[in-house]
Structure formats: structure tokens, C-alpha cells
Amino acid sequence: MSINVVEANLLAIRTGMAGPFNVGCGRSYSLLDLVRGIEATLGKQATISYTAPRAGDVRDSLADTGRIARFGYEPAAHLREGLAKTAEWFDDEEA
After folding, report:
1. Buried-exposed string 64-74: b where 16+ CB fall within 10 A, e elsewhere
2. Cα–Cα nearest to 77, from 30, 20, 29
């Protein structure tokens, strides 16, 4: 689970806020950004296949965190840091 989502849930408990709220890190990442981040985190290279977009595919997405920010939400991690923490958690679980 995303560290930002965990932090948002803890904030909800502390402040009594009720949602729904968008939780994000304040910037948009492409699927290729995600793949490159995973590659860098794991030290492995992915095989990427490019295909035509499908009907209904979302081209661009960015969470509007303005509503939750009023309760004091700030992103705890951005993409690369979140991927690193996720990989670390899985490594610890396997040990």
C-alpha cells in the first residue's frame, strides 16, 4: 500500500475527516515513468511492448489533493521513494 495512502488514513483518524479524498504526490507520472522507476529500484530491465491506445484508456491523470490538503495532508513520498520503500517491504517479508 502506498505510504501516502497510509499517511492519509492516519491523518483521517487524527483529525476525524471524512472522505472521499484524492491522495497523491502532486505530480503526474506516466506508465513509462513507473516502469523506469521499477527498473531502477530492482536493478532489472523490463521488456516493453508499445501498442495503440484502447478505447477508454486514461491518457493523463493527476490527483487533485486540494481538499485533503486543508486537513494538513502533504505527500510523504514520491514515486521513486515509494517504489524503494515497497521493494524494501517485500524483501523484509521474504526474509
Report:
1. ebeebeeeebe
2. 29
Q: What is the pTM of this model?
A: 0.73
Query: Cell 502506498 maps to which residue?
Result: 2
Topology given in CATH for the domain delimited by 3-48+59-94: UDP-galactose 4-epimerase; domain 1 (3.90.25)
pLDDT score of 6? 87
Domain ranges of the chain: 3-48+59-94
Q: Cell numbers 506516466 label which residue? A: 30
Residue matched to cell numbers 492519509: 8
